[in-house]
Amino acid sequence: MSSFSICGKVHRFGENINTDLISPANYIGKGDDIMIAHAMEGADPDFSKKVRPGDIIVAGENFGPGSSRETAPFVIKGSGISCVVAKSFARIFYRNAINIGLPVLILDEVEQIEAGDELAIDPLEGIIRNHTKNEEYRCKPLPRNIHEIVKDGGLIAHLKKQSGK
Prior knowledge:
The protein is of the alpha/beta class. It has seven helices and seven strands; from the N terminus they run βαααβαβαββββαα.
């Protein structure tokens, strides 16, 4: 495994989980803590009570369509989620997630993963191990340059590190 490994319990979501379900608009601008406390509320009202640091979201096709605001990946990361694995992502969500340092991985076999499964992920190698089911899946690995941005905590932190500031 690479030096950047992700381990956690799965929170499972379906298809087309849009940014309004991820980050309800009525909490935007009310402070980071309030926005984070309501992360994923539109898709699972009890999410904030169940999520633990390091947990992983696994979803179906088209995760994150809707608004271009960065609050959607921000509240996911802020809630403690360490990675989002989906069959596909809305392009703007995918890019915003990278920009804030949230790993996002594409996996065709998401239907094999269930809520509560324990995963270990190597994003650089594109390996997902399901310890609960003793299975291994191959996902599209993060390109090395994207991996470095995520590992550094997002695009701004990465640019500051590169510039020495």
